[in-house]
Amino acid sequence: EVQLVESGGGLVQPGGSLRLSCAASGFTFSSSAMSWVRQAPGKGLEWVSGITSGGTITRYKESIKGRFTISRDNAKNTLYLQMTSLKAEDTAVYYCDQGLFGGGVRGQGTQVTVSS
Asked: How is residue 77 annotated by DSSP?
């Protein structure tokens, strides 16, 4: 059974940083492209970033380029999202997802709230 468990969310002030983690199990993580998607209050699911299985290619939503960095540790079956210069509009539940652009199984999500 595929399991994805996100952690690392919280309340942060504008301009602050957070690092999200996603622990994966139940599938061959090292062979799977992965992504982060988010859902802001009252809005639909939005793709944020993706990374290929080996970690050599990354993709980002235009609005978060230069602020977020996706990475992975295949030895630990873990996906990361380093978020810096956070803005109020980054407030959302963040999910890790299978596939470079999502569309697979997602975890339960971790809440990120950016507010002063």
From this structure: T
Distance separating alpha carbons of residues 28 and 111, to the nearest angstrom? 26
Asked if residue 81 lies in contact with residue 91, where contact means CB atoms within 8 angstroms, the answer is no
Single-letter code of the amino acid located at 38: R
Q: Which helix (H) or strand (E) segment is 71 a member of?
A: strand 68-73
Distance CA 8, CA 83 (A): 11
Identity (one letter) of the amino acid at 66? Answer: G
Quote the CA–CA distance of 25 and 42 in Å, as a whole number: 30
Both tokens assigned to 55: 């970690």
| Residue 64: count of CB within 10 angstroms of its CB | 22
d(CA 27, CA 24): 8
CA-CA distance, 4 to 79, in Å (whole number)? 10
What is d(CA 72, CA 67) in angstroms, rounded to the nearest whole number? Answer: 17
CA 49 to chain centre: 7
In the block, which residue shows the tokens 């999502």? 102
| Intervals of the chain under pLDDT 70 | none
